[in-house]
Amino acid sequence: MKKLYVIKIGGNIIDNEAKLAAFIKDFAAVDGLKVLVHGGGKLATKLAADLGIEQQMIDGRRITDAATLKIVTMVYAGAINKNVVAQLQANGCNAIGLTGADGNAIKAHKRNHPTIDYGFVGDVDEVNTRLLQSLLEQNIAVVLAPITHDGNGLLLNTNADTIAQEAAKALSSIYDVELIYSFEKSGVLMDAEDDASVIPSINPTTYSELKENQVIFAGMIPKLDNAFAAINSGVSKVIIGKAEQLQQLITGEAGTTIKR
Hints:
This protein has 260 residues and is α/β, with parallel strands linked by helices. It has nine helices and 14 strands. The protein has an eight-stranded mixed beta sheet, with helices on both faces. It has a two-stranded antiparallel ribbon with strand order 3-4. Helix 6 runs parallel beside helix 8. The longest helix is centred in the N-terminal third of the chain and has 25 residues, at 66-90. It starts with a strand and ends with a strand.
């Protein structure tokens, strides 16, 4: 099986032009097949504030009303996605930017929660592996924006970590997939205030212990849940770590590795 890297870049790096440029240079230098998934929450929040559109967040998840859906579509699928693609081209990496609607790449359904109305938030139903494979096999890096569609003309805002997980899971039937969550922290930390306190590896047993002892801060739990879901669905390895250390994350010299 060919190796494929599915790499998620966190929003805080997207917000910093210098860090994003350095990351894109490193991503462009990664050998082989690769998919880049990005978010971009702060820019969307800033634009919403500039336009006087109030934003609601519940447990770190954005409530996406009709006005907010327009903003995140403009920001994620437009400004950020095309900027990333253009910078990849400038670094000699042929790339294409997609939303879930493009080529029917990712279909989803509007979230149905028993107590919370998340608005136009989507949960993934299907990833079009044939489309992604056809692009990857032409040595085109795929850049996925976290906007999906329901097949009936409705765009949906979908969590970027989940997009990365679902893409990695789906493509693991074709490739040897490594999923990398890269962001501003050096990995999963024993002490959220100490970036040097990286936990080198986590398996299901140690994960349960870390949660029980309240070592892992709340914002990391959804990322780890996604990581274990990916591992349990055929992804060969999941690594969480600092975007500035992308090459070291790939070689296993940095970050936290999630194991079965």
